[in-house]
């Protein structure tokens, strides 16, 4: 309406002044037509803008997060000796806050205090800037300062403080609850955004989340999809029943159970794969199942490789495009079912380090070290850098196939690739080298200790077996003593290998005496 009147004034040969432009710019800013507001401001060629005009255009900058433009207009006001008012500063601080410029927001607050008294809106805008920067302690101090200056905090004030706390980790979850209690004592009604921020915090345990949901119901706040979905993610695998309860609660509260809520419930099922399948079937019955739904269900069916394959086929037949997560789940299922041929073919479709590792793992379970090596080499040729997980699976395959020479080669390859060998890889390589390359097995064990890797029972047992092959009876006893010092519990295999080493050494000594 204001824009139309401004155009009509020109058509009717009426003089357009600063008042009419300011009104039109203000109307555009209120309607979130930021580009129109700036365009009108640029049309004021012969008309000097006043503080109302600048405040309106800077309000548009604030809503559009154009912080640099807001600061430009603020400096222009100073050059033209137009004194900014509280609304002008608030708009500039809001623009900087929305543009993640918390330092600029603090500087504007300091400049404002020289001539004006900040209000609740000023504090809220600055708290939003601090919240987005993760400066939760500064945000809390600002809230305390707001209360000390006898200004009435708003819901936005408390929500900004709670959101800032959520960025600092779980150790301050209780502080957020204190703010919730303070809000209610001051007569402020917590909003959906308040509860959403509380529920989404890292330290919110599932029992606390359930309590917050009950408080929302008591306060007649309607559970929305965001709050419900966030609450679902707080339920661990051991609390999947709470996710089911939340689904029912959201429907009783009149909330349309969105896909995010259902997918979160599937993910919360943990190893209860039948429950995940039931939820997925419910989604498919409503014709809203997406690839995330299938991926979550496939992850839950980790040990049921045939079911994972069936879900992948259903997803494909339903016209859903598989993702990297889908294909990696399928590859892992082939590994569980020792279906190395299918794993090898599937890994070619979309080669990533994860898919390559899954294919090698499938070959490892079947002791097909040569196919695993081919898969690893193929991924490298497609510019997918193999990682230590793939090397560890391949070393394990070499161990099972008694391919010690290839295991030695893998040890050299990891060094050449600059990969940091982990305990799993070293253990597999050591075990493969014990029988025919015991010096390499012992050197690998020493290298693990020199690199301060957490050597375990398998590591020690492999070294003892290598010492047995070498006929060294003293070394196994030293290793057993080290195990006791590092609180690694020896088992029958390690004790048996040590005893066998002594017997071998005794036979060698007897043979030597006989020969003399």
Can you offer a commentary on this structure?
- The chain is built from 30 helices and no strands.
- By secondary structure, it is mainly α.
- The relative contact order is 0.03.
- InterPro entries: PPR_rpt (IPR002885), TPR-like_helical_dom_sf (IPR011990).
- PPR repeats lie at residues 50-84, 119-153, 154-190.
- It holds the Pfam family PPR_2.
Q: Percent of residues in helical segments?
A: over 70%
Distance between the termini: 117 Å
Uncertain runs are: 1-9, 337-357, 362-384, 510-516
Q: Specify Rg, calculated over alpha carbons.
A: 34 Å
Main β sheet profile: none
What is the 3D form?
Answer: elongated
Briefly note the structural class of the backbone. mainly alpha
**Number of distinct helices:** 30
Estimate what percentage of residues fall within beta strands: under 5%
The ordered string of helix (H) and strand (E) elements is HHHHHHHHHHHHHHHHHHHHHHHHHHHHHH
Oligomer: single chain
What does the secondary structure layout of this molecule look like, with pairings?
Layout lengths: L1 H10 L6 H13 L3 H9 L8 H13 L3 H13 L6 H13 L3 H12 L6 H13 L3 H13 L6 H12 L6 H13 L6 H8 L6 H13 L6 H10 L5 H13 L6 H9 L5 H13 L5 H10 L4 H13 L6 H13 L3 H10 L3 H13 L3 H13 L6 H13 L3 H14 L5 H11 L4 H13 L6 H14 L3 H12 L6 H24 L1
Keywords:
PPR_rpt, disordered C terminus, TPR-like_helical_dom_sf, mainly alpha, 72% helix, mRNA binding, 516 residues
Quick description:
With 516 residues, this protein is mainly alpha-helical. Helix content is 72%, strand content 0%.
